[in-house]
Amino acid sequence: MPELTILIHLIAASIALLLGGFIVFTQKGTQRHKILGRIWAVSMLVTTIGSFAIQTSGQLSQIHILSVVSLVSLFFGIFAIRKGNVRRHRGLMIGGYTGLFIAFLFTFDPERLVGQFFLSLFRF
Question: Are 52 and 81 a contacting pair, CB within 8 Å?
């Protein structure tokens, strides 16, 4: 497994995790919210698409179901706000962030490739 792929995935996911947490707790509808939301969406896109390149034995795993759900949620969340449906946008974006947080918790599983890579960063 190319370490660069995992590193890019971890960086994008970290940006999405930190930025998403900030966005959730700040004022909505502002120019700052829109700009940060776009950055968050791109980082989520990189995270989810990149996750498909991270496989054990060349096979997708159950965690990739979350990647598909995240992509669909992201698409419909963007579509909702473009149509002016703030309530649906909010629900889909919070759902996407929640899924990201759940995936983050699985990162620490030493049986997973991302977990192994992440933990190897702290070995001296």
Answer: no
φ, ψ of residue 82 in degrees (nearest 5): -65, -25
Residue 49 burial (CB < 10 Å; 0-12/13-18/19+)?
A: middle
Residue 61: phi and psi, rounded to 5, are -120, 180
Q: Considering only CA atoms, which of 2, 10, 1 is closest in space to residue 121?
A: 10
**What is the DSSP-derived secondary structure letter of residue 71?**
H
Coil vs helix vs strand at 27: coil
Collect all residues with Cβ–Cβ distance below 8 Å to 67 and sequence separation of at least 6: 48, 51, 52
The 10s digit of each residue's pLDDT in 16-60 is: 999 999 999 999 999 999 999 999 999 999 999 998 888 877 777
User: pTM value?
Assistant: 0.84
